[in-house]
Design brief:
It comes from Daldinia eschscholtzii. By secondary structure, the protein is of the alpha+beta class. The chain has eight helices and 14 strands. The protein has one domain: Jelly Rolls.
Length: 280
Amino acid sequence: MEKDEDLKDDPIAELITSFNELNAGVVEELDEEPSPLEFMRYVARNTPFVVRGGASDWPAVRRWTASYLRDSLAGHHVNVAVTPYGNADAPTDKDGQLVFAKPHEEEQPFSSFLDYLTSSHSSSSLESRGEVRYAQTQNDNLRNEYSSLYSQVPPSIPFARIALQKEPDAVNLWIGSSASVTALHRDNYENVYVQVAGQKHFVLLPALCQPCVNEQELEPASYVREAGDLRLQSDGGDKVPFAIWDPDNPTLRSTKYSHLARPLRVTLEPGDMLYLPAMW
């Protein structure tokens, strides 16, 4: 109550509060893909949606099991991100100071990476080994590093390609376990995320919640291996602007507006498709 009194007549607080009152607190779910015109209406409103089962007929969704990927990528080396806690590209404490922590990266045989990933279904047992591994390169990797798998997904999402009048800028594959967490961040492009296997839990904030996320400029750092252990090493260079507030831990590193945020939560199952608007 005291917080709301402090923000009385604050235009930013009024904007966030009005948005919350005028918009649903859930991600809209569709049972079929939208037409290009319908999709553009979501783009114009900067509003996410989920198409349940929208990609269920993709060959990738039907075929990509651990054994299938192992056979398809036999002898292939991939870039693997390694961190102690699954916290790549995230604000992390280093000697009492928050830094922007990038993962250690190394080339590994895909079979070795997959063995490590699937050797246990428990995230706690993975963490007990002292590191979490995942494949997360965001450089159009499905058309490059994993090009042998690319034919099993459509080259584009038709409703998005037609509406936006362009082919995808990048097509990326992400492989990880429940031990890895993506830090709160935003992308400046329209994103369509498809769940091929397993689940992914999303926590979403609209772009106007920028005052809630406490963006700060952080020193860049990277994990490095030393005597078998991972430690953070400062990189130097320009600072990285990054949100340090976590909606799952809302009282830590909050701003005076953070309590006004109303995160949307959605879980994707295999074959589900999420439209994530720019700047969300």
